[in-house]
Amino acid sequence: MHCPRCDGTRVRVVDSRTARGGRAIRRRRECADCGERFTTYESVEERTIQVLKRSGAAEEFDRQKLIRSVRVACAKRPISASEIEHIVDQIEDEVFKMARVEIPSELIGAMVMERLKSRDHVAYVRFASVYRNFQDIDEFYDELQQLRQKREREQAAKNQVELPL
Ligand SMILES: [Zn+2]
Predict the structure, then answer these.
(1) Interatomic CA distance for residues 33 and 45, integer angstroms
(2) d(CA 78, CA 55)
(3) Which of 3, 25, 52, 98 holds its CA 20 to 30 A away from the CA of 33?
(4) With a threshold of 0.70, does the pTM exceed it?
(5) Distance 28 CA to ligand 1 centre (A)
(6) Is the dihedral angle over the CA atoms 66, 83, 125, 109 positive or is it negative?
(7) Helix, strand, or coil (residue 155)
(8) Alpha-carbon torsion 70, 76, 81, 86, what sign?
(9) How far does the centroid of ligand 1 lie from the alpha carbon of residue 92, in Å?
(10) Partners of 18 in the beta sheet?
(11) What does the pLDDT read at residue 137?
């Protein structure tokens, strides 16, 4: 296995575990020459999972594409690249465990939202606005209001603690 960055051959495995619901082995590798870390998969050659889009079109489940869309939602938020990878790992695992040939894109969107919601509200709303297909602008506004009220309540609770009476 050559390093994808410097083409060096002194690459060692730093972590190895199962992925995709036990159908694959995921290995984190590190290049001794340039320090680059990358991931490889060893898996049984098998059918792919089709993601069914709202338009009715289907496309192959693409891990990199999912990482890119989560990355966009997390831009300039305090979420590291490895956290994003971890989120996508979990989703990929769940998707493959379902043992279905086709999965609606909404379902994958919901999995991402579920994880972002507890992690970062801004990233969650960004992602949700694209994927959840809000019925109308009011619904989107309600969602934002709820988040704002929650933040205000948290802020108020914090101020109460900080202000000596
Ligand atoms: Zn290298």
Answers:
(1) 32
(2) 33
(3) 25
(4) no
(5) 13
(6) positive
(7) helix
(8) negative
(9) 27
(10) 25
(11) 47
Find out whether 30 and 11 touch, Cβ atoms under 8 Å. Answer: yes
**Do the beta carbons of residue 58 and residue 100 sit within 8 Å?**
no
Amino acid identity, residue 62? D
Expressed in angstroms and rounded, the spacing between residue 12 Cα and the centre of ligand 1 is: 11
Structure tokens belonging to residue 27: 């290995």
- Domain borders along the chain are 7-46, 47-150
Note down pLDDT in tens along the chain; length 165 residues. Answer: 899 999 999 999 999 999 888 888 999 999 999 999 999 988 876 667 888 877 788 888 888 888 888 888 898 899 999 899 999 999 988 888 887 788 888 888 889 989 999 999 999 988 887 766 554 445 556 666 777 788 888 888 877 766 655
Residue with tokens 């509200």: 121
3-state secondary structure 104-130: EHHHHHHHHHHHHHHHCHHHHHHHHHH
Nearest alpha-carbon partner for 133 in 111, 117, 110: 110
Q: How far is the CA of 41 from the centre of ligand 1 (A)?
A: 18
Of the candidates 23, 18, 19, the one whose C-alpha atom is nearest the C-alpha of residue 45 is 23
Q: How far is CA 30 from CA 27, 35, 37, 67, 125, in A?
A: 10, 6, 4, 20, 35
